[in-house]
Amino acid sequence: MFGKLRINQPSPGIIETQETPATGATVRGRGTTGYMARWAYEHFVEPIPDGWEPDHLCRVRACVNPGHLQPVTHKENVLRGESPWAVNARKTHCVHGHPFDEVNTAFTVAGYRRCRACTLQDRRRRARTASR
Question: Is the pTM of this model over 0.70?
Fold first, then answer.
């Protein structure tokens, strides 16, 4: 298992060099299959609670350095990333500069945030064009 690991320089990390699926490095042994990062963290640090997963603080999914891993919930792991959902969740203002706060934020039936000030401006604009 450790024959397929290498030290990544200049940012020291232990990289699993075997072909890996999109979800990260895997480890097989003793009748089980699991993720190498989870195994490394649990083997060298402490057990990861049920329902939690290792977050790669270095952002390299193939890295199995326990020092680069932190157990978090799936939601926290996703929101720390760079996916469109994570990027949008970190936004504090709409594209027109209105704040996303309790007063100015509405939610659609699908759960998306919407700026109330922009919605009101849009309704007024549509009403003006419809009355012409």
Answer: no
